[in-house]
Amino acid sequence: MAKLHELQTFNSDNGSLTVFEKVIPGTIQRVFYIYGAGQNPRAGHRHHKAWNALICLNGSCHVYNHNGYAETTYLLDDPKKCLVLEPEDWHTMYEFSEDAILLVVSNELYDKEDYIYEPYPNNRRSDESVLADSE
């Protein structure tokens, strides 16, 4: 199941330094970020192998998560918050603020065969319902 971490942050008169380490298993293989998404939902999938860590560096967004048994919605609105998604976590990101920048760090390279787009049977939300909820 997804887990929300607070990343270790060091504050001083020179600003803040937040450290991302020992958060996902393995070696970081891929880093990307999402911005300019507005109210358009993103993702709507889970993985066979990939673990992903999501950090909203600026602004905010919501993340809906379902692992086949339980579902939770998270608000990412602080760059110290890091949501770690395990491979079985079906997720959708939505309601991006206008200034949102969502960083995603993965322990796997992109592989289209790793993606599972079929939601769990008891998943109450899909991309379509997220979009309807945010209008």
TrEMBL record:
Annotated ranges, domain Sugar 3,4-ketoisomerase QdtA cupin: 3-118
SUPFAM superfamilies (alphabetical): RmlC-like cupins
Coiled-coil ranges (or none): none
Name of the protein in its database record: WxcM-like domain-containing protein
Organism the protein comes from: Spirosoma agri
Lineage, highest ranks first: Bacteria, Pseudomonadati, Bacteroidota, Cytophagia, Cytophagales
